[in-house]
Specification:
Elements (H helix, E strand, L loop, with lengths): L2 H15 L7 H19 L8 H21 L5 E5 L4 E4 L12 H6 L1 H5 L8
Antiparallel strand pairs: 1-2
Helix pairs in contact: 1-2, 1-3
Length: 122
């Protein structure tokens, strides 16, 4: 699958799952393109493996969910919980939407990418 075909397929899958939450298709296309290019670079490939379309679509859907939570003001991960008099302390107030598609997210799919990675001899 070519790079452009992969981007198109990914955006279609994400739009299918998150139709009500997507207001900016240009932003969606940007995220899909970024991940496709990063994957092609990491895997040393010119073609995009079709089975990774769903992996990338899931990662983008996760980002959309995180952005919705951040806009709604949902708290971040729990840092401390006290049982008596019930005290909650959050590690962060809210997730930063700009940093959600980070290296940590890309690292989470590396085990799957390694299956498609080509060896490059220098």
């Amino acid at each position: 699958m070519t790079r452009d075909e992969a981007i198109q397929a990914i955006t279609e899958k994400v739009q299918l799952r998150k139709a009500q939450q997507i207001t900016d298709t240009a932003n969606l296309t940007f995220f899909a393109e970024k991940l496709v290019v990063d994957i092609l670079d990491y895997c040393h490939r010119d073609d995009f493996p079709p089975s990774l379309v769903y992996t990338v679509a899931d990662l983008i859907c996760k980002r959309i969910d995180d952005e919705v939570k951040a806009v709604a003001g949902a708290p971040g991960p729990l840092k401390r919980l006290q049982q008596n008099d019930t005290t909650y302390e959050w590690a962060v107030n809210a997730a930063n939407a700009a940093g959600l598609l980070s290296d940590a997210d890309f690292d989470s799919i590396k085990p799957k990418l390694n299956r498609w990675r080509k060896v490059v001899w220098s």
